[in-house]
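Attaching the record inline, Q. Sequence:
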Amino acid sequence: MAIIPAIDLKSGKCVRLRQGRPDQATAYSDDPVSMALRWESEGAERLHVVDLDGAFKGEPVHLEIISRIAAAIRIPVQVGGGLRDVQHIRDALSIGAAAVVVGTTACLRQDQLSRLASQFGERLIVAIDAKDGIVRTEGWTRKSSLGAAELARSVEEAGIGTIIYTDVSRDGMLGGPNIKAVERMCGSVKCDIIAAGGISSPSDVSALVGLGLPNLKGAIVGKALYDGRASLRDLMLAARQNE
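Structure, as predicted:
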C-alpha cells in the first residue's frame, strides 16, 4: 500500500484544514515547492496536491505553483481542486500533472463520467468525499443526495479505475481513519481505492493494511506529517509490513 503525502494549497501556502473548513486552516510553509522536494527526498513515490482555493471557487487557482512543483520533482503528482470541466482537466495535465482528481464533477454530472473516462483513461481519478456515508461537494461545503457507495458504483460502471475516498469528518482531526467506511467502500467496487482522512500514526496504517483488501492501494496523509506526529518513513514501513 502506498503512502501519499498531501500538499494543500491556499493563498499560495501549504496548509491543512480541519474537516475541510477554510476558517480552520493552519499554514505550514510559504514554499510548497520546497515541501514537495522534502517529501520526495524522504521517499514518497507520489504526491497528492489539492488547490483548495480552486475547490471553493470552482476553477483552478494555483496552476502556476502546481506547474513549479511538477517541474521540480521526478515523482508523479496527482492534482485536484476546482477541476470542474474538460478544459480545467486539460490545463492541469498540460502543466505536468500525472493524474487529475475530480469530485464535484463526478457527483453532479454523472452522465459525463464515461466520456471523461474515455478521454483521459488512467489519468482520471474520482474523489468521493463523504460524511456519514453521504457525498459532499464543492469543497465539502454542500451535502448531496448521493450515497458514497452509490456514486462509487457509478464511477466503476463508467470505466474509471481509481477512487480516493475521504471521510470528511475525520480529515485533519488525527483521530484515525474510519475503518468500517473504508471497508464498505472497498467492498462496493473493484476499483482501486485510496483512503484519506484521519490517518495519524503507523498503527492507523497497520489497521488499514490489516483489512487485507486487495483493492485498497494507498493512503493519503497530511496533518500527521506536518505536525510531526509520524514520519513518512515509519508510515511507509507500516504500509509494507505484509509485502
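The chain has a mean pLDDT of 91. The chain has one domain: 2-239.

More tomorrow.
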